[in-house]
Request: fold
Amino acid sequence: MSGASKVSKTKFCVGISDISDSYTGFIIDQWGVLHDGVKAYDGVIECLVELKERHKYVIILSNSGKRAQANEERLNDLGVTSDLYSKIITSGEVTWQGLNDQSEGYFKDIGKKCILISRGNDRTIVENLDVEVVENPKDADFLIISGSDAPNKILEDYEPLLKESARYNLKAICANPDSLGIMGGKNIMGPGTIAARYKDFGGIVEYIGKPHQPIFQHCIKLLQSKDIYPGQTVMIGDTMAHDILGGSLVNIDTCLVKRGLHSSVFEGCEDLSDVDKSLEILVRQYNNIRPNYLVDDLVWGKALPDRKHKRREV
Reply:
């Protein structure tokens, strides 16, 4: 965990309005913060409107194994329209670009034939690439893990294919490192769990996405092109392992949203003392990495000006 910034105390916030004046760049996780995969959370759209009115640069950063355009369409269907944020960056998009170039790092000369594990047999991660999806590991050059069909499939359902892929020493790209995901308010198995199982069988895996630094460095470069630097940026997410750790590793302040993946930890808390005790449990579990801020939800937290009500009626 070297390089991660240490925070002495977490500030409990009513909403994002408590911290908005301190930052120009906002990197916001998607699943568990903006929506649950079925609907946008209450207050999210209004919060994004407020950030836009204050000329904040908002990056939606997701470990989604799908490309940016597919995520933009999903958000639009949920009412989070593209005018409410500045950019979408997904691990699926970064993976697609790497496979397209095949010129550096893990992607260099990785090959042209792959086994693809995705949700619903989605193939957008290789769409319009000179990459062929094959069914048999003996015919493949590498393996892509971009999604899972949980809860319809369990980990054991993937094991025969993983064992066979490891037998042929296929390098794997995990285009979504999340071990767990949220679907309709319930936790489901994420692609990261499948990738971890592949490692158990002796496979080599390269993870693209949070908390790994390349995707955060991608965000930092984009922000710096707008004259926004890490000290002016905050990462808002619902997972300690991906959002809070990832932001800390690149010295970006972090804000944990209670509603998402760790919501069960805070269940039954009756006062701030209980919340503090629950947060301490999380902090100890994650090598004492502590978020700078804690909020219940991605909400603004103050009464909205009349102009916002007028805007939403248009």
Residues 5 and 251 are 6 Å apart (CA to CA).
